[in-house]
Amino acid sequence: MGTRWRNRIIAFLMALVFVCALSGSFYFINNLERFEQKNYFETDEFHSELGEYANALIRSEQLGTVSVESVKEKITVTMEEIEEHRYEYGSLDAQLDNIRYQYEERIQLAENGESSENPEEVIAERDAKLEDIRKNFSSDEHVEKKIRAEKEKLVDDYFDDESNFPPVSSLLSDEILYFFEQNGEIYTNTDAQFGSKEQLFSENNMQYVTNYTIHGDRYFHSYNWPYEDWLYQALTDVRGDFNGKIGVPSELASDSLLMTLKTSYEENRTWFWRLGISSLIVLLLWFVTMLKIISLPLQAAKWQNLYEIIPVDLRIAAVGVSTFLLLFSLMWMHDCINQLTYSFSTVWATEFVISTLASACLSLLTYYQIRYWIAGMRHLSDFKQEWTKSVALRVLRYCKKIHQHLFRIVKDAFINTATGIQAFLLLGVVFGLGFGAIMVFIDFFFFLLYFFFVIFVGGPTVVLVIKSIGYFNKISIKTEEMASGKLGEPIEVKGNSVLSKMAANLNVLNQGVKVSLNEQAKSERLKTELITNVSHDLRTPLTSIITYTELLKKTDLTAEDRVAYLEIIDRKSQRLKGLIEDLFEVSKMASGNIELAKERVDLNQLLQQALAEYDSSLKESNLQFRVVNTDKPLYAMVDGQKMWRVFDNLIGNIVKYSLENSRVYIHVQQFENKAKITFKNVSKYELNGQSEELYERFKRGDTSRHTEGSGLGLAIAKSIIDLHEGSLDIETDGDLFKVNICMRVVE
Predict the structure, then answer these.
(1) What is the pTM of this model?
(2) Which of 192-196, 410-414, 610-614, 680-684 has the highest mean pLDDT?
(3) In a domain, 44, yes or no
């Protein structure tokens, strides 16, 4: 316990020594210029007092007086002043017209007897002024005389004003001797017993003597300048300069003011040098001692762990505050030392003690903060790690988030530029109305301006806002109705605002929902038909197979019937197999699980091969085929087998569903880099304009489904063309059935 308190006392004494040495060194450096002179009479302080003494001499008229007449003799009138006076009120004609206008009403009233003035006297007065103005423009001497009279009047006013001649005295008036000469006149305050100036102002009689010049401008140098420059220049010229000597007698009383100042300066100078040198030496020794102490390992203190919990930026701020307070207390000590050097005072001595103790405590606080901070962070990486937990960084991150949030808000407001501008203009109008309501109490003009602003800007803005709110409510209600499934009628679109565009988009969405519902209903209908058709087409051959199988089980069948039944079962089985294979193929194409073996194929030749497969069927039919090919081969990168399947399905449909004794047209064309193959025939069944549904699986033109076929031919053909990045379109016009195939060709 004793060791701990002893260390604390030593630390406080070290801090006390530091602040005293630092304050003394600072005082020494700051006042070095003041005490660098060995003699008081060489200091700036004495020369400043000497200047005040010289000023008091000339202001108190101990060096003679300045007469009014001497100043008036210095008055001059320049040509520039004459011209300025002449044209002060405008040109000659303008001044004459102005005088006539001024006297016109007076003359009229006098002539009508409405005033007590004599008309002739008023006219004579006017004519005199007119004549004076004409002389101003015709004679420079006339103007010069008037200007000189005005300046002489100003000189008289200057000397009549007693505030220009206040009583002036100096504290050193009885302690300094002077001897000045001007134009043969001698001005001195010396004793008559001295025979000459040289004898009086010799080094034997004076402890300080110097040649001195008092300039004439000191006559008014310390006072305001309410008059024109020419007057002060005239006063300076009349006063002139005084050249002579000023000295301090050797036989001054020791208690005189000047000797007291001299003695005080010498004593303070001796004390200053002793204090300064000793303070610098002590400060140097203190630093050497501290270097040894700092090199010793720092023992952990109880509050060090608590100090390390504080964020690093708050620690920096605490060091800054304690350093600032330390500098403030050191400046306080410096002021106390300055005051004590001039005169001892109990108040200043008390403040010196208080400021010294405060500086010692603050220096200890600053030292331990820096010491423990450095001990806790020996590497730059430690500081970087601590900085990530700082309050400043947290605040910065929070401000950044706020800035980003505000930026996003403003950016979102200006996604639609027109809406953003309108919103900010509306805010401007609102703030303008609020600000204007305050301004109306300042001036009536602001009330009128605010009234017009409310009528022509505020009123239309309020109406526009109310209409926009109503329109927005309609859109909101319509949105809720659509969300609940009530489509209803579209919203009326008004104008070209954002709300109008929103209403239009909502109408488009409403129409899209209706179309989607119709498509969904159609899809459900087609799905039902698909199931029905698949069931029908699969059940028909399967029923035949089951029926004839049961017949084969009979024992009384003849050989011819048995052979016939087996042929029927075989044919129906092949039919069922073809249906199932087509169904699997369509499913694979729809799912994309099929690979194409593309090669360079001539479409004309491939079409001819497909037609050749149906050669016997075409001859048995009563259809007339008209085939038109291109003159040259038409090549495309396709899977030959799949494309042959497309042509085979289309030609097979034509043979099955074409009207008897009709013509069939197949036309092959090339347009730039594309080939167009068209199949046209007249259907024997009514198509009812359902060209889109013919793509559907198991869909047939034969609605009674009496013909052979799977109903998957067009669906397979379209899937194959889609896989080749081509297009297959069906057009119907009455009973005319048309298929267009477009494919990309290569050279």
Answers:
(1) 0.43
(2) 680-684
(3) no
